[in-house]
# Entry
Amino acid sequence: MRHHSLKIGVAFLLLILCVTFIGPLFSSVDPNKVDPSQTFLAPSAQHWFGTDSFGRDMFARVLEGGRVTVLAGAAVVVLGGAAGTLLGLIAGYYRGAVGFLIMRLTDLLLAFPGILLALAAGAVLGPGLRNGVLAVAVVVVPIYVRVVEGATREIRKRPYVDAAVTTGAGSVRIILRHVLPNVRSGLLVLTTTWLGYAALWIAALGFIGMGVQPPTPEWGALLSDGRNYVTLAWWIGTIPGIFLALFVIAVNLIGDGLRDELDPALARR
# Structure
């Protein structure tokens, strides 16, 4: 925790997580409750973040939307990271025809811009939070494959791996005991960084209507609702945007700090 960006990122992330996950426990307001008599109320003591066009409390909706966005981003990283790590280990350790096929498919996916690939996958799967998570996970998989495969190929040449092969250790044991622990630091940095990108892309899908469907709140969907009332009720889109920006900045600061601390070359400098 001596790294300044790491400390700042952790502080911001803990603040956002506490507000979005613990804050609703102290509020009894239903984020989907409609009250036509309370439309477009500015932020006040009664409604901290104001109300929207249906009279729904924006404070409750921003907190509920934060949980949806953050958990969806985490699900993207878990699914895409697990699949990409497994494929990268197989391609880097076994190589041969299987490795060649995996890497060529990876190159094919990497040839498309990430957001375009996510939109294409979302269009095929259809709208909805689950399909949005799967669509963004498709984008994450080839990135993990490329990173893990490169690291595994280097580790595969190390003397301790040759020694393990000589003693009769099986491939699975070598991968779990010697290869995976040595790519763990790179995976940690990649996962932290992509948590922010995943949340941002989940919000992007929600913004264009391909993610979470109404009336479920989500930061991207809230931004989409607020763009129609920028001059009338600025708080509807501004406050969710601030929360989303702070979350992405926080996890990127953590990723930068972890990279600087865990990368031996940068640590020596």
In short: Residues 4-268 form a domain with the MetI-like fold fold (CATH 1.10.3720.10). The two ends are 18 Å apart (CA to CA). The mean pLDDT is 87.
